[in-house]
Amino acid sequence: MAPPAHRTTAPRGGLLRNLPDYEAARTTFTWNQARAELAGMPGGRINIAYEALDRHLDSPTAHRTAIRYLPREGDPVDISYRKLAERANRFANVLAELGLQPGDGVYCLAHRMPDLYAAALGTLKHGCVFTPLFSAFGPEPIRSRVEIGQPVAIVTTERLYRRKLAQWIRGTPSVRHVLLIGPVEDTPPDTLNAAQAMAAQSPEYATRPMDPEDRALLHFTSGTTGKPKGAIHVHEAVVAHHITGKLALDLHPEDIYWCTADPGWVTGTSYGIISPLTNGTTMVVDEEEFDAERWYRILQDQRVTVWYTAPTAIRMLMKHGPELARKHDLSSLRFLSSVGEPLNPEAVHWGRDTLGLPFHDNWWQTETGGIMIANFPGMPIKPGSMGRAVPGIETAVIRHTDDGIERIEDPAETGELALKTPWPSMFRGYLNEEERYRKCFVGNWYLTGDLARCDEDGYLWFIGRADDVIKSSGHLIGPFEVESVLMEHPAVAEAGVIGIPDEVAGETVKAFVSLKPGFEPEDVLMKEILALARKRLGPAVAPRQVAFRDRLPSTRSGKIMRRLLRARELGLPEGDTSTLEGGKE
Ligand code: AMP
Fold first, then answer.
1. Distance CA 53, CA 38 (A)
2. Could you tell me the pLDDT band of residue 224, with boundaries at 50, 70 and 90?
3. Which of 237, 413, 453, 579 is deepest in the core (most CB within 10 A)?
4. Are 49 and 207 in contact (CB under 8 A)?
5. Residue 281 forms part of a structural domain
6. What does pTM read for this prediction?
7. What is the tally of structural domains in the chain?
8. Which of 372, 388, 462 is the pocket-test mutation for ligand 1 (most atoms within 8 Å of CB)?
């Protein structure tokens, strides 16, 4: 039996909700209508950056603050829609002068800074394909993603370039240009100071009208096996970015919106760059990493109205207790939302008790490009549930059968979450991996790799993953990527990597290794292996613990049985590995 639903509080701020009646919207919504809310370009063409910036420039929005940038120290910097458009135009002109062609890949490895946004939008304006990379990645995840996606240009900072790229990037034939954003003290050879190059360019640029099916974004994600997968998204995706921001996050042009997701991941792009701009809001961008006191101060001082964050951050705030929150005036907040990992009911209640508003959980993944399931504003929240399907999206919980899949009707039964295709932000492929892509679909259903249950009221409940990927602090980690690095250590014979529950991060990465003959399972060796992993993978991906085993459980063909490792580690029955048939590679 599902726990009782809670009514959301009445909207603050005197704004009418964008989705006053969920049931009505489910029957009347069409994607064509959603598309009609955007400007589009002549001849049925479209460009994400045109919708985010250009179309506002003939309206009063041009003078509104698009980005309120909070540097680590010092005063906030306001960048208007017009100024951001001009900066993006300058960047697009730089790409044009460097000879980049539409379809060419531009990667960005940088922490939050204004020119990251100009680079992303300028890349899209020029018809190039934008890929964000998480700046806390070590050299190895960066290198593998560069090898797979073969970008023509990389945008980064001087510091990140020296620490993570300089040693190997010149041996990568596709990369013809490295552009450095942010302060550059001493331009390294073969790199370009982006600010200088942009200053020499015109602030005008005629945004390229793109075919709706032209590639716009390449986002990397991880599976159970093999290398990272590059999920391809097209310009048409902006229709979903826009409308889901409007309906599920209730974005209004009056809003001061803060998405805490890092722009190195898909949430930080879809809802940290594109959707807030298409919806004409002011977005807060904080250069600093999590700090409870700083975060409350931002909510208070910037008068944030809509806040989109993640369970790990909420749990970290909860650990600081309600007193810290109550020292701040948080009365500007009117809508709180969370994504990326299961949001436990306590966090929903804590929001309501401490911040005066409940958190609205929503669900999506890199492949879906935008929010698919949400606790919508105005709809009763069921704490612990991800919510209901976005209007225009049909969900099903399915079981695998001998000849395909079938829908599970029993609200008590768990199955794999499936989404009926198509929708505008659906990924259009895994780069160069047609077979892997094809395997994600049965008929016109996309199989998500997540296990869920659907209750009598159509609310979906997340149960777990059907595969072995790990979610740590909201970041998806592929065990294979970690195991491959561990195997590089001369002492390691076998490696198996799993996620183990963690009170704050959701899961942390734990590695099991067996050693080659002649090596002893000693503390100093363990530290050496951990240090190697940290150096190569970066702290966000590297295991926190390494345990030695004489042998790792494996199938007859030699595949490490991670689920058995996990069951043994957590004391679960070995037959019950909490997963079903299915799951993604
Ligand atoms: P990513 O592709 O990195 O955005 O990760 C997507 C995965 O994160 C999903 O397939 C889920 O396993 C997990 N996830 C995202 N949102 C939620 C949520 N609201 N509740 C539980 N798990 C979630």
1. 12
2. confident
3. 237
4. yes
5. yes
6. 0.94
7. 3
8. 462
